[in-house]
Amino acid sequence: MKQIGYLIIIIFLIISCDKNDDNPVECSESGNCDKCIIINSDLYNLTNTDNYTIQNITVNQDCLEIEFGSSGCDGNSWEIDLVDLGGISETAVPQRDLKLRLINIEECEAFITRTISFNLEPLQLGNYEAINLKIADYNGLIRYEY
Prior knowledge:
By secondary structure, this protein is mainly beta. It has helices at 2-16, 41-46; strands at 35-36, 38-39, 53-60, 63-72, 79-84, 95-103, 110-119, 130-135, 142-145. Strands 2-5-6-8-9 form a five-stranded mixed beta sheet. Strands 1-7-4-3 form a four-stranded mixed beta sheet, with no helix packed on it.
């Protein structure tokens, strides 16, 4: 009888565990955008922003379009992400902090310009119709209305 009790407790513990409790939330669908935003404070803090220049940022429906440039051969090997700090600044309009993350191993000296879009839907807040986006190394805030 004791063995059945232990078995029930073990089954209950296994069922009640969630293996992804500590992992950041990531979107799995980029919609009409090129990529999803990564929400991860550790990656945000480790992201270097001195290997590119942001030229323009616009919001197009639920996509944040970033035009940027960096040195390289053709940009085909670049790994590009947009990383969110994971916190929300409590201002009149809530604000999120983001960094463009570029891994560029190309050693050519040509200046390559690219535009890439990121799905903003995972950043929406239920009680608000808009948020401000503060992009590192870009002057001004970007307003995202949804």
